[in-house]
Structure prediction request, 131 residues.
Amino acid sequence: MLDDLELDEEWFEDTWKELEKARGEIVLETKKKRPKKSSDLQEIILVFEDTDNLELEETYSLSIRANNIKIGKTEKNGKFKSVGIAKLKENKFMEYMTWQDDLLMGTQLTMAFEKGYSIEISGSVSINELR
Prediction:
């Protein structure tokens, strides 16, 4: 049982380390890439301010790919309203939640930002820092 827990923690750290780094950072730029005809994966790119770095104006970019990516804002009535990716600019990335959905057979990920904005990601998820 302990070995399973240790493996889960290692998998979590390797899989979501980019999100951990970005938590608390402000989104400076956004981009939604058009899917290639040969792929059913959607991709967005978020550029974050690196406030942990001592150099001024240091940034880094994350590429997020998944089967389904929805960007929206939770309204006062609790409904999720789709918005353009540009609405995330100048908002701080606050938190993320992830879980496995056995019915949909994939990963579910919610990234929460200031002012009620969020990204709902599902399916085969990959998050990589762009160099």
Observations:
- Residues 1-7 have pLDDT under 50 and may be disordered.
- The helical segments are 2-22.
- Residues 27 and 48 are 5 Å apart (CA to CA).
- The beta strands are 27-33, 42-49, 59-66, 68-74, 80-82, 93-101, 106-113, 117-123, 126-130.
